[in-house]
Amino acid sequence: MSKPLLALLLLVCTATSQAASDVPNQIQSSVQACDACHSDQHNANSHTSSVAPVLNGMSDWYIEQQLANFQLGYRTGQGPDAERIQQAHSKEAISGDTLSLVADYYDELEHRFSDLTLSDTSNLNNGELLFEDKCANCHTSAFGRFLSDGPEITPLEAPYILQQLKAMQTEQRKFAEETKHHRKMVERLKDMSTQDLIDIVGYISKNAKSL
Ligand code: HEC
Ligand code: HEC
């Protein structure tokens, strides 16, 4: 084998082994467990009864906050797999330093914008009006998110967003530390029809990268 070819091969091997060892040793089994449902390699609809969002790029503080919400019973799994989902987020499955490391790991990965769409049709004009008036200030600018503790929602899967909006509207999804921002969002959702929610989600998923 020629020298340049050998050098290239070595480079490729090193790059591959680095990618494989990116997950710190002490959290490899946890990340494997989470990725069974949350991996960006899956079709989000194929592995549980409800959509597990891809965690890549999700803020570490938000991942930890949501795990606490599951563990304190403010969020629950939905559908026929509810128990399995609840178990996967329990204190026995993940807590303490392992949780912090897992949250840091996902935070540092690049966002993977979802291309999943809704099967229902949306009125994108209505979606835009509602989103810009009632949602954008807490979710799209970094400053708005900082003030409200709102997470980034644009990379999320459309069916997952709709599922969460319905859960928050009906108070199935609650908040361990309810703030005025949570109350404001839920109030706004309560004024909306299911079609309004579909329109908003359609608008978000069509324009995710520019919002
Ligand atoms: C059995 C499948 C499954 C496993 C395993 C699993 N999850 Fe989940 N996860 C889900 C589903 C489904 C949801 C959405 C639940 C809902 O409907 O609110 C979810 C939601 C979440 C959320 C909230 C995301 C958001 O945008 O609010 C976080 C954070 C999360 N999981 C982290 C983890 C971590 C960390 C692990 C590994 C320790 C893990 N999950 C393992 C299925 C799973
Ligand atoms: C006043 C600020 C505020 C407004 C307005 C607001 N939100 Fe939120 N939103 C939040 C906060 C804070 C959270 C975090 C919820 C939690 O702590 O569990 C959140 C969470 C969410 C989530 C869950 C994301 C996930 O990863 O699971 C979605 C989806 C969402 N908001 C969509 C919307 C939509 C659509 C609107 C407009 C109808 C809206 N929000 C209006 C502050 C706001």
Strand content of the residues, in percent? Answer: under 5%
- Number of domain modules: 2
Question: Ions, cofactors, ligands: which are bound?
Answer: heme C
CATH class of the largest domain: Mainly Alpha
Largest sheet: none
Characterize the overall form: globular
CATH topology category name of the largest domain: Cytochrome Bc1 Complex, Chain D, domain 2
Subcellular location: Periplasm
Protein name: C-type cytochrome
Pfam families: Cytochrom_C (PF00034)
Signal peptide: 1-19
Describe the protein in words.
The protein has 211 residues and is mainly α. It folds into 2 domains: 82 residues, Orthogonal Bundle (Cytochrome Bc1 Complex, Chain D, domain 2); 87 residues, Cytochrome Bc1 Complex, Chain D, domain 2. The chain is built from 11 helices and no strands. Bound molecules: heme C (2 copies).
What structural keywords apply?
binds heme C, 11 helices, mainly alpha, 2 domains, globular, Cytochrome Bc1 Complex, Chain D, domain 2, transport, 211 residues
Short description:
The chain has 211 residues and is mostly helical.
List the helices and strands and how they pair.
Elements: H1 3-20, H2 28-38, H3 60-71, H4 82-88, H5 96-108, H6 124-134, H7 136-139, H8 142-148, H9 158-169, H10 180-190, H11 194-207
The structure holds heme C (HEC) (2 copies).
One heme C binds next to helix 2, helix 3 and helix 4.
